[in-house]
Amino acid sequence: MKRLFVLATAAALSLSSFVYAQANRSTEAVVQAADSFLATLTADQKQKVVYAFDDAAQRARWSNFPTGVVARGGINLKSMSAAQQQAAMKLMSTVLSPMGMEKVNEIRQADDDFKANGSKRGPGGGGRPQGPPPGGQGGPPPQFGGGRGPGGPGGRPPSGDLFGSDLYFISFLGKPSLTQPWMLQFGGHHLALNITIAGSRGVLTPTLTGAQPAMFTLNGKTIRPVGRESDKALALLQALDDSQRKQAVLSYQVADLVLGPGQDGKKIAPEGLKASSMNAQQQAMLLDVVAEWSGILTEPYAAARMAQMKADLKDTYFAWSGATDGKAGTNITAYYRIQGPHLVIEYAPQSDEPGNHVHTMYRDPTNDYGSALLKP
């Protein structure tokens, strides 16, 4: 028995060392791709792209709104040369998984479709977005006014085009490093990736994804940028028995993201069905939903995050608000939330086009912006 214990311990340590080595190799590849991109920039572009790591204003300068409504830091793809665009996309494909890169590209393609066809669809189409960003207090922080910070000029949001796949911005907080923490931001309309890297560890929270249209046709193929998030959660809801479903479905309507842009640090109480009340198959289905967000990052970083989610599973909740009669292959019109000790996921259809305009949010209340990685 003692020998078996020793062998098991050795195997676990070996696996841990292997995963750690993989994560280190991922960081090496990401830093190399980041440095290669930065090397393509002019001095003026580089000044606009690189911020101090402790620049709290830039860290929070993300939104669901188009960049013509809420300004972003950094430079966008439209302002880059072909070689710079290629280097930027090489960096993104290095730090993201194939699934994550596909999702980013489909969100950008949806913005092209919205630019071309949005005004034809009626409510929610074509015009300038109205009202506050999701979460109620979104958009740039109050200090984002005039003046010039370490990452270039702030001030009024830019005018011009609102929609399009080239209106997505890239910026860095800190210098890409194998050992010191730094941050990569990439985003625009319906997308905000905040990726903090510290040595072998990579953190994706907070991250916002979404789409309008959330279903469209491109080259004869139906595209649903956040479709799996809809289908997998619906399948989980349908797998619950009546008693479980009664616990999961909230008695009130949730209209939008609760912890969207501008809601950093806000706490909410967990609601719904606790995973400890699910059977093994249902728990696996819940983790499969979570993987649609955790799996956006390259696999070694994502694996560490999923291990944390499995450890927290029995203290994780699944809550649903809205219609329960959805069909796979079409986007649900209901809100849902998955919440655990280190996790909040929200899926929030929008009232103008509930099945075709979706916002989602992915947070770790204990580690947004990699805050837990920075503690001594």
In short:
With 376 residues, the protein is an alpha+beta fold. Helices cover 35% and strands 18% of the residues. It has helices at residues 2-39, 43-49, 56-59, 82-95, 98-117, 227-239, 242-248, 280-294, 299-311; strands spanning 50-51, 75-76, 148-149, 152-153, 169-173, 182-188, 191-198, 201-203, 207-211, 216-218, 221-223, 273-274, 317-321, 335-340, 343-349, 358-363.
Overview of this protein structure:
By secondary structure, the protein is of the alpha+beta class. It has one domain. The protein is built from nine helices and 16 strands. It has helices spanning 2-39, 43-49, 56-59, 82-95, 98-117, 227-239, 242-248, 280-294, 299-311, and strands at 50-51, 75-76, 148-149, 152-153, 169-173, 182-188, 191-198, 201-203, 207-211, 216-218, 221-223, 273-274, 317-321, 335-340, 343-349, 358-363. The longest helix is centred in the first third of the chain and has 38 residues, at 2-39. It is globular, with a radius of gyration of 21 Å. Mean pLDDT is 88; it is low at 4-15 and 122-159.
The radius of gyration is: 21 Å
Categorize the overall geometry.
globular
**Domains, number:** 1
Averaged pLDDT: 88
InterPro entries: DUF3500 (IPR021889)
Biased composition (Pro residues): 130-143
Keywords: Signal
Signal peptide: 1-21
Task: Give me the secondary-structure topology.
Blueprint: H1 2-39, H2 43-49, E1 50-51, H3 56-59, E2 75-76, H4 82-95, H5 98-117, E3 148-149, E4 152-153, E5 169-173, E6 182-188, E7 191-198, E8 201-203, E9 207-211, E10 216-218, E11 221-223, H6 227-239, H7 242-248, E12 273-274, H8 280-294, H9 299-311, E13 317-321, E14 335-340, E15 343-349, E16 358-363
Parallel strand pairs: 1-5
Antiparallel strand pairs: 2-5, 3-4, 5-6, 6-7, 7-8, 7-9, 9-16, 10-11, 12-13, 13-14, 14-15, 15-16
Helix pairs in contact: 1-4, 1-9, 6-8, 8-9
